[in-house]
Structures are given as C-alpha cells and as structure tokens.
C-alpha cells in the first residue's frame, strides 16, 4: 500500500492490545486511522497471555495494583468498562475469583474479535512494517521499513522489551527521546528469578505455598522450584525489584516463610507439642503435614539435623533452628531470567512527560503514548492488559474531542 499521499487523522504504532483498542475507539468515532505493526498479524502477544487463556482484567482494580515512578492517582476501577468493550465484540467472560477470562478460555478469541472489528471498521493496517522514525513538521511523518505514513496525530503503542520473540522493539523509547522526553530505567518484571542455591537441586520440580520476601517486599502464593531458578506468582510479583537491584548491583537473598499460617511462637509450640506426643518419632515423621514434604526435608537439612533423628534427641536450639528456617528459608539471587522470559517491562517513558488526562506528550503536541511503553507496570492478574486498555481509552477520548 502506498500511503505517501494519504493524510490520516491518527497513525498508531503497534497493533498490540493497546493499539487495537485505541484504533477501534477512534474509527468508531469516524476518524481515519492507520495501524502500523512489525509482525505479520495483529495482537500476536495476546495469544500468549494468561497461559493462552488471556486474563484480561480483575475485579480488584485501582492504582494500588500498579507501579510507576510517578503518581498513578488517575487510575480508577474501570474493569467493567473493559469487560463491556470486549462483550460488544462478542467476547463473553467468566469470573474466576475476580480474575476475568474469555468464556472460551482461549486468548485466541480476544485477538480474533479485535481483528474482526478492525477489519469491519475498515481501518488501514500495515503489517510487516517496522517503524524506524517519527518526525514532525505540519504533519507527523512515520517512517517504516516499507513506507511513510502522514498523520495529524501519532500514538506510540509499541509495548516494551518483554518477550522479544513475540515482537518487541526499543522504538517507543527512541521516539520519546527524539522528542526530548525522558525515559526511566527498564527492568524485566513478572519473570522468574535465577538462583545457584544448592537446595534447588533437591527442590527442583516442587510447588509449595509460602510467603516470599525480598527486602521490604512480600507476596504469598505458590512457589515453583526449578534446578537453577524459582518462579510462580509470588516470585513474579517481586521480580521487578530484583530486576532494578540487578541493574544497580544491589542484589539480596529471597526469604521464604513456608508456614505463614503460624507465628514463630505458635510454630515453636506446635513443634514442642508434636515432639512430646511421640518422642520416638523421627523428625521427618513428626513434621508431616506442616508444609510440602520436600520443603520440610530441606528445612531439616538447613537446621543440620539428620532426617532419621528421633525427636527425643533434639534440644532447644534444634527447635529454634527449625522454627527459624521454616520461616526464613533463604535462597540466593543471581538476577532475573531477563526480558526474553518476562511478561512485562517495568519502567519506560516517564509519566512526568505525559499529560495523564490525555496521554499526550507535554513536549510534543499531537504525540501520544499508551500501554506498556509507559512507565507503568501492574502485578499479575489482568492488570497489564487493563492498563493497555485504560491508557488507550484516555487517549481516545482526548483525540476524539480534538479531531471530531
Ligand atoms: C507470556 C505473557 C503472558 C502475559 N499474560 C498476561 C495476562 O494474563 N494478563 C495481563 O494483563 N497481561 C499479561 N501479559 C502482559 C501483556 O501482554 C502486556 O502488558 C500487554 O500486551 C501490553 O500491551 P501493549 O499494546 O502496550 O503492548 P504489546 O502487546 O507489546 O503491543 C505492542 C505492539 O507493537 C509492535 N511493535 C513494536 N515495535 C514496533 C515497531 N518498531 N514498528 C511497528 N510495530 C512495533 C509489537 O509487535 C506489538 O504488536 C503477558 C505477557 C506475556 C509476554
């Protein structure tokens, strides 16, 4: 397609969730929109979300579930708006304890519904076009590897650096910097954490619940142990802090509380009670049921007790060591598994450079940013797609008001 002569109202860079939502909202308002995408299909990343099921929002919604270097007070609970938006495209949803998925359980449904609407609205989509530069004179000029798109406004919805194989590039940050906008440090987030702790050789394959702490940050859930890394919900949640500490060379250990349902004092009483009931039981028998059996074996080993020791041979110090290691099981941290394994990018275009009531750059009129490219990242649970939607929704309202 030769777009040299045509002047679009808006050129959107990136046909991910954010770009697609924005394009649909603008085209429905009668604006002439061009979507430019480096992949050969729109919304490719959506297919991988929620383990192929697409957890697109959450009933517990608000600024407290997001991180940024800037205030996020403008984020409110809009999860029902997003549900309605998808519902209007034919995507019905189901609520799994507040986590929303398409009723089909297939992320494919969401991608296809968005693609169908883009096609129905007759939006021009330039696939297999990598944007290399954006410049501004009277109009914006978006240069791709194949063509040049002229537009009155441009929205950068090009995502972050996570999961490069699904299509990611630094273009969003480069465009911001070319218009003298600041970007913050970038870290992989919602990602597994590498560790060379010896205990992982024994724990590999285990899934155990507990509270994971890293410095001041804690999160509870199922931890998955692999031979050279840990993952699972609580690890994903703290990984962004590990990522930034890795950049600053300030890494610390992870601590796991395998028995969060008892305080240290209650656990000590529980152990004493168990040991008194059957003094001839081996330590491993006496501890059965407190938490995952492999975790118990490791805690006993950390406490320097042999598994076949009968409990009548344990002294006060042994009990204190057991309590300590059940509640402070330590794993060394070598860093995160990196952007390729990450679900999202922490950091991005600095929100202090953006009017958050419109998502427009404060440095360049007519230039907008939405989605993951901005310095906003959410926790696990549908928050990042919700942010992609929220920012697109804000931008759409502002652009429609100006151009209609
Ligand atoms: C494995 C995985 C699972 C996830 N699961 C969930 C989940 O269940 N729930 C949730 O809320 N979030 C989830 N996320 C995060 C979520 O997918 C992203 O936060 C969200 O898709 C960001 O949307 P976006 O539109 O801002 O960016 P993207 O979806 O990344 O879209 C950006 C688009 O821009 C294109 N692009 C990039 N550079 C260029 C260029 N130079 N020229 C043209 N096009 C370009 C890309 O190809 C891409 O299509 C998951 C992420 C991954 C990787």
Automatic annotation (TrEMBL):
The keyword Membrane applies. InterPro entries: BaiN-like (IPR004792), BaiN-like_dom_sf (IPR023166), FAD/NAD-bd_sf (IPR036188), RsdA/BaiN/AoA(So)-like_dom (IPR055178), RsdA/BaiN/AoA(So)_Rossmann (IPR057661). Its cofactor is FAD. Keywords: FAD, Flavoprotein, Membrane, Transmembrane, Transmembrane helix. Residues 188-344 form the RsdA/BaiN/AoA(So)-like insert domain. The chain crosses the membrane at residues 12-36. Residues 9-397 form the RsdA/BaiN/AoA(So)-like Rossmann fold-like domain. It holds the Pfam family HI0933_like_1st. NCBIfam families: aminoacetone oxidase family FAD-binding enzyme (TIGR00275). This is Aminoacetone oxidase family FAD-binding enzyme. It comes from Pseudobutyrivibrio ruminis.
